[in-house]
Please model this.
Amino acid sequence: MHDIRWIRDNAQAFDRGLARRGLEPLAQKLIGLDETRRALITKLEQALARRNAASKEIGQAKAKKDETTAQTLMAEVAALKESMPAMEAAEKDATAALEKELAQIPNLPLDEVPDGKDEHDNVEYRVWGRKRDYTFAPKQHFDLGEALGMMDFELAAKLSGARFVVLQKGLARLERALGQLFLDTHTGENGYIEVNPPILVRDDAMFGTAQLPKFADDQFRTTNDFWLIPTAEVPLTNLVRESIVDEDKLPMRLTACTPCFRAEAGAAGKDTRGMIRQHQFTKVELVSITTPEQALAEHERMLESAEKVLQKLDLHYRVVTLCTGDMGFASRKTYDIEVWLPGQNMFREISSCSVCGDFQARRMNARYRGKDGKVKGYVHTLNGSGVAVGRALIAVMETYQQADGSIVVPDALASYMGGLKVIERVT
Model:
């Protein structure tokens, strides 16, 4: 959520930021809505002040036994009382209209973010590792998984429909092992606190991290008005909603491994085979709550934390800086980590790490206080995948596949696999 006071004082800069996002100027429209709201507030305040003053004048008139003046003043007070509910309703409607408009506007990109229209304009930041050489044509994960008898999309469709999967045996354990490795790394080496949050949340939580109202169609909602989380970013970030955090507790670093749910409303025809784009998937999330001064350094640190788990698995990947046209709604700057998939012969996203400034904090009313006890302002929030477990499973399967279709278990997962070193078909 944007600060209307900042927009009033920086209208041209605000519109320039929107233009970089490919949006039309909105500053004057918003300022107009704010002027209407402020005028109504002033009118209401003046009416309240006059009612209070007239009430005192009634007492003074009665003390002087000036009944004519007292009756006139009493009539004035009665008229003010009668008109004030309409004034209050008008002010409330004007405030709601402004907030509705502000809630639909994405965050503004940092100056350093490259301009562009879509993923083709993203800029490579760095590369780790290299492509492996195979003496055979690498297969895609779904061909491998189905041949092993451990990845079943047809069975999942009987249960739930398209974009679900049933994993069994070695692949089910491999996915669990990946989540454990990621959590152990982030908590044991990267300084994150593990959290086991709810995966059903209310409207306010989804609004706080900006999934609502704009992206309601991308979410799953229960019949009793809970939302299934699309990412643990939602409950983790909202842990500080409507609170004031002590500055000496920042940065606050949180991680969770949860099921995630997305309707994939705009994904018709995309990645219809396999596990790349599922309605339900597992992801390890990273969230940081910081002061404004800490945020950019924390962004680089979060990226390195996400990279570390891929390096442990010896997976080839690259990091790209997203351009203005490919950034998420709440982000000011985003790094994507794209892992190399030999079966697809291409890089695919496995993590996004974003710095959001105070955009989410304003929606959540999350602030921080200094050592002097005074509230200093809104916290800054960051979120990132550390990483998507299902996509890591895909990357491990395709990277560590052998000519006979078996999968070698990476060394980093050995302690989680109960002695299993190779996943192969069990007849």
